[in-house]
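Standup notes
- DV: blocked on the single-chain target, sequence here:
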Amino acid sequence: MAIERMKLMKISGALEQLPAVSEALCESESFQPDAAAKYISSSMGFLPFADENPYTQKLATLTDFAASLGFPLEVQAASVAATDDADDAYIRAVEARAAELLETRRILTEQKEVCEDGIRKYSHFTGLDLDLDGISACEFVKVRFGHMPKESAERLQTVFKDYPYLLFCPCSEDKTDYWGVYFAPVDRLDEVDGIFAFLLFEPFSVPGAAGTVDEVLAEIRKSIAILDGQLSENKDQLRALWKEEQAHCNQLYTGLLRKDAIFSLRSYALHNERSFMLVGFVPESRVHKVAARLDVLEGVSTEVGEPPKSDKVSVPVEYKKRGPLYRALVAPYRYYIEMYGSPGRSDVDVTPFVAFTYTILFGIMFGDLGQGLVVSLAGLLMWKLKKMELGKILIPCGLSSVVFGFLFGSVFGFEDLLDPVYHAMGLPGKPFSVMDSINTVLLIAIGIGVVLMVAAMLIHVYASLKRKQVGEALFSQNGVAGIVLYLMGVNLASGFMGGPAPVPTGLCAALLGVSAVLVYIKEIPIGLIDRHPDWKPDSIGDFLLQNFFELIEYLLSYLSNTLSFLRVGAYVLVHAGMMMVVFSLAGESENLFVIVLGNILVIVLEGLLTGIQVLRLEYYEMFSRFYEGDGVPFTPISLKKIQKHSN
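- DV (later): unblocked, structure below
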């Protein structure tokens, strides 16, 4: 299916051409480098580059500078054409200009924090109408600021009421504590401090000041106002500096990103005194485009071939470019596929299968014309306003719910609202009444499960043939033998339950037995046909016993996976049942508020659960039969992607 084939491109040339080659590859946005040491023997005399990237620190410095001003850097169409020394000189100069302003901002901010801390501390003692400087200057009396629990204050008035040296003056209170001061003679200070410590008094240091508490607070607030004005002026100066330097900084940032990307390719390359070697992956459809950029460089040669089949080499995977309709309706479902794992180099693109099955199953399980429209509208808003990938999936899912809601005759839970439409179409009523056909709903759900299980196994057969694993395609539990075993089991179960059994019992039993035996001994024919080195079992007894239990596991998985699709029918019934509850609560008068609130709850709750359950069916009942998901996504070196990663 639509997975791009990758080619391995080896590039060699004169050492002085490496920067030009790197720049051409970066601009092509079609080359993903890989370590050249994996493909070139060390006996050829090539060594890796040991020099450090000089642009990484410059980028970090420039980015930190912009971040300190509170402005983001942006990639521009053009960059500054300057030498490295000129870049360094400019960064040092503009950083020095900003450093003075930033230091002023730091000092002003610290002073404001000190003032705010003073307000926070003094505000507890606004009831104290004494000169603070005079209190602290007392020679024979000391004062302590702090707070203690209200229970302790009550004990102070009872237990210690006759003690002559205790004087506590409450100034304010909160839910649990009194805030205030106590006074004590200097010669009794330790004794008084001990009593208040026993009463859980927590001392609270306040900054020294002259005047009453109210006067001090007024002066602090004046200072904060002055500091706010100075900070605002400082902010304007920083904004003016950025406005003056923004264009040059962005151009320099663009140029440094390009230089950094070009230089970073050296870490993948090998070299000797005269030449270099660079290796990477290029999509087959873009090989000529990349080669054309390199052919114009003198002394540079390219060699294109197939990637080696080795565990040491991870070949990246990229989806082929498709039309706008495919991108709108199918491509969004890659979000779910990549959650499970990227496709491997020999996997098939299952996006169309997932898009079709997920949309149909969601529509069946959430079949309501009105609520489906709401889901589609919600998905559209999620995508347009928040750029959420899930929004693009909800749009077709909601439309699918609209279709099945029309078949079920449900519009926001109203079951008879579409009757005039059906009569106009010549139908006696709704095509399918859910609550009148419960058994039919569950049987159809099982039938859907059988069809999708067989489809998943057919995809496995196709993927195995694509990987040239003929034995796997024929004899595995998800191959041809597995399909026959599963379908014959379904045929027998259907006949036993009184349902249709297209295959006669005798033939069915014979096919069931043969397919079971083939799946039972599958390791031997698969190993022989696909040329596995360890196909021959070490012990016949262990082989037979182990495969017996594996066969039982396969049969149980066929059964459990099929029955798991009962949730499709169950959700159809649950949806109808929940709306019946809503209308029961609304009463005969059909209270509009209850109906609207009930619909909102059903849309949110059941919509979420339906999405999760359908995804579970995709992952566990279908993906596990044909999809490996062990691939690596194709990430070519690109200025745009490096800029996005830097931000």
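- Follow-up: DSSP finds 23 helices and 13 strands in the chain.
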